């Protein structure tokens, strides 16, 4: 299903973001999206699942639209695979979907949009969730069949040692209880990260987008209780690995 939001026909460059669940786009790439929009680039966000295991799908759909409007996203596309969860993987769910099948969807979107850049996740899915890992696999399959700049969102786990707790650390702790040992840390060390985007100028937009996903990030969540300065310290940078040619993300 596709939701077409306000489209800016003057935008000359398109970046497509593939995310596993609603709220991932705001947490991991919200600032980058906002800054691309400021640069008058077109942004399409694709959700692999509706995140229904995390709450009512209708509520989450409303939250998607609110967050997309806050960020200035031009178009939202939902692939409508079932959310996989962390334990027993339903064979119909996204994590079990044929990689080539999903990659075909993405190639069609990239071609239709004449997109130059695709954003996915690092090989660990940032923190090990099966849907996130599958997003990574799909991105690599897309790169193998279509020329584009591929950026894999991650977090700098060395940087995160020095700030308040990031939501991804809480997510990893929950995942570890279900999946067992999934790695010593989230994300990657600084030396392996190709691109760091400073999004502090867009931090209020990012915070509003995260808050729009209130079923997942309620006002009582750790992120929402942070002061403005602490929120900017934790969420004011976004990190990527790059494969293929340089994209416009590196000019932000």
Q: Helical proportion?
A: 25-40%
> What gross morphology would you assign?
globular
CATH top level label:
Alpha Beta
Main sheet: strand order = 1-4-3-2-5-6-8-7
CATH topology: Rossmann fold
Tell me what the CATH architecture is: 3-Layer(aba) Sandwich
Rg (C-alpha, Å): 16 Å
Indicate the structural class. Answer: alpha/beta
Kindly estimate the percentage of residues that lie in beta strands according to DSSP: 15-25%
Mean pLDDT: 92
Elements, N to C (H/E): EEHEHEHEHEHHEHHE
The major β-sheet equals: 8 strands, mixed
Q: Please tally the helical runs, counting DSSP H or I stretches of 4 or more residues.
A: 8
The CATH superfamily label reads LmbE-like
Distance between the termini: 30 Å
Please describe what this structure looks like.
Helices cover 38% and strands 18% of the residues. The chain is an alpha/beta fold and 252 residues long. The chain has helices spanning 24-38, 57-71, 99-113, 130-145, 157-160, 167-179, 203-212, 228-235, and strands at 2-4, 14-19, 42-49, 75-81, 117-121, 149-154, 195-198, 237-243. The protein has a single domain, classed as Rossmann fold.
């Amino acid at each position: 299903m596709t939701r077409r939001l306000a489209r800016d026909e003057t935008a000359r460059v398109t970046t497509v973001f593939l995310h596993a669940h609603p709220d991932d786009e705001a947490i991991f790439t919200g600032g980058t999206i906002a800054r691309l929009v400021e640069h008058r680039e077109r942004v399409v966000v694709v959700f692999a699942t509706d995140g229904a295991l995390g709450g009512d799908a209708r509520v989450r759909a409303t939250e998607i639209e609110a967050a997309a409007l806050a960020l200035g996203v031009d178009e939202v596309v939902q692939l409508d695979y079932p959310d996989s969860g962390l334990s027993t993987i339903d064979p119909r769910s996204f994590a079990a979907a044929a990689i080539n099948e999903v990659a075909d969807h993405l190639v069609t979107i990239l071609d239709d949009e004449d997109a130059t850049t695709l954003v996915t996740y690092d090989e660990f899915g940032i923190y090990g969730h099966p849907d996130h890992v599958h997003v990574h696999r799909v991105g690599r399959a897309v790169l193998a069949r279509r020329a584009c700049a591929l950026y894999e969102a991650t977090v700098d786990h060395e940087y995160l040692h020095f700030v308040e707790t990031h939501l991804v650390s809480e997510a990893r702790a929950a995942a570890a209880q279900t999946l067992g040992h999934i790695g010593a840390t989230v994300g990657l060390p600084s030396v392996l990260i190709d691109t760091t985007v400073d999004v502090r100028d867009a931090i209020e937009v990012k915070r509003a987008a995260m808050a729009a996903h209130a079923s997942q990030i309620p006002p009582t969540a750790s992120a929402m209780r942070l002061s403005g300065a602490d929120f900017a310290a934790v969420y004011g940078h976004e990190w990527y690995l790059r494969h293929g040619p340089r994209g416009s993300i590196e000019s932000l």
